[in-house]
Amino acid sequence: MHKLLITGAAGGLGRMLRENLAGIYPELRLSDIAPLDPAGEGEETVTCDLGDYDAVMDLVSGCDGIVHLGGISMENSFEAILNANLRGTYHIFEAARRHGRPRILFASSNHTIGFHERTERLDGESPYRPDSLYGLSKCYGELVARYYYDKFGVESLSVRIGSCFPEPRDRRMLATWLSGNDFCRMIEVAFAAPKLGCTMLYGASANKEQWWDNGHAAFLGWTPEETAEVYRDRVEAATPTPDPNDPAVIFQGGAFAAAGHFEDE
Ligand code: NAI
Ligand code: 15L
Fold first, then answer.
1. What residue stretches are annotated with the NAD-dependent epimerase/dehydratase domain (predicted)?
2. Whether the CB of 228 sits within 6 Å of ligand 1
3. What topology does CATH give the domain 3-264?
């Protein structure tokens, strides 16, 4: 693959991938609605609102692969989510259909299944249980991926990312943490696989606490190599002992599941 488009490139994961994928793919097209650092060698920067159909068609043209990170990444109003996540994700897949069907890695989220309890071990057949309007929008994105594969052959990997930060920030993240290196390896595997189809992966590192089973996608050969366990002592020392009756502790989605419904004013 020569030219990789990264949407949401000004965000936390976008900035990490910009740095780590630079030596792997010859050209990166980096896009966001927010300001981006100036383009370096092998980079192009494009300011684009994912909700703008024409702009997204131009954005995708000429790209050989897409890592679609852009959008609202937390709970928010339906209107905000509608533009960035629903319209935006539709636009990305539609643009891929119209411009040579590049593969897409879609940044889905564990909040698609956040209302499953932590005692459950989920796999590729587990039902959606979104814990927020945000999680609901990621379920929609995964179904857009399904539709565009079944009808048009656009291949994609939807990654239900757990918590991808430099280090786990709380006790829940000891189970949900995905290291940046493991995420980068996953991206390489997705774009190099002889056949990707329409696949979903749970995005967690090789943590001791495991809620998710990726057996259904073993054919891809992605095996996480890092673990949150090395941070356990530090995290436990810095955070209070959890109350087992707290919904934020009962459900996989944590605070997203425990929070009330987001209402527009
Ligand atoms: P982030 O919030 O730091 O970055 C998202 C980026 O999308 C921002 O730079 C923002 O300006 C951009 N964006 C928002 N609306 C846009 C629009 N209308 N048009 C164009 N760009 C727009 O989020 P982060 O942490 O980097 O996450 C990246 C993706 O991964 C998101 O889609 C998020 O939902 C998903 N994800 C991240 C997780 C994590 O642990 N970091 C966990 C699960 C999912
Ligand atoms: C997400 O989907 C969010 O984008 C991220 O900011 C974290 O909150 C993460 O889930 C998580 O569940 O830890």
1. 5-175
2. no
3. Rossmann fold (3.40.50)
